[in-house]
């Protein structure tokens, strides 16, 4: 099984486990349900990676820190449950499982398995749909950690902000054309963005830091606090507007 197919199978298995857990464990609510989901999906992913890729390092939101030498070698970066807040609410479907592989600091494979709808991956990526004739670009933004930078962006560029949970779900929204961009700032970790970046790039989208610099994985501390994923034809305009916004902050 190649890395792309493995990423997809693991993300799908963990997503199925999380859906089953939420359906069957009606005794669990709120934070307890989120914790149990995080714990069980993490255990599944780490055990399967140990079986299929015993030589590779693993970085998980629920695991220990960044392994030594992670920046130069092969590093699986997983978020067993992205959008934990949304998962706790049985009515919501904006959460996902992320599985990505970085090699030498670059993401090279990945999958995002959302609670509903199809898994997006690097094994069989669908290209971005043709640009729609919209007057205002739609920009996905965190619903619970809304960055001031994005509100400031909306003051210099005529965009519609679309709040939703989960970085992976927002990246998929770019891939399907439901939105044109996803902008984040103010804090995030490598497991939040690695798989979303892998699948968005495989579909032909632009992905970078908000200042246009490259996304490099396997860093000590695992922090990558900001992110821009967007349709390629919007990248220049958004980067220029973000630069103008940051200059006036
Ligand atoms: N300011 C911040 N600091 C740290 N993590 C943040 C953050 N803003 C968003 N995140 C994380 O990024 C992921 C996507 O966020 P959001 O759903 O708000 O868009 C979530 O991961 P988890 O759900 O895996 O904890 C969330 O915790």
Automatic annotation (TrEMBL):
Binding residues for Mg(2+)? 61, 79, 81-82, 192
* E.C. number(s) listed in UniProt: 3.1.3.25
Question: One Pfam family, short name please?
Answer: Inositol_P
Q: Does the keyword Magnesium apply?
A: yes
Recorded hits in InterPro entries, A to Z, give:
CysQ/Inositol_MonoPase, Inositol_monoP_metal-BS, Inositol_monophosphatase-like, Inositol_monophosphatase_CS
Catalytic activities: a myo-inositol phosphate + H2O = myo-inositol + phosphate; adenosine 3',5'-bisphosphate + H2O = AMP + phosphate
Give the cofactors, semicolon-separated: Mg(2+)
Region annotated Disordered sits at 114-144
Give the UniProt record's GO annotations in the biological process aspect: 3'-phosphoadenosine 5'-phosphosulfate metabolic process; phosphatidylinositol phosphate biosynthetic process; sulfate assimilation
**Which GO molecular function annotation, any one, does this entry have?**
metal ion binding
- PANTHER family, per the entry: 3'(2'),5'-BISPHOSPHATE NUCLEOTIDASE 1
Protein name in the entry = inositol-phosphate phosphatase
Give the organism, scientific name: Saccharothrix coeruleofusca
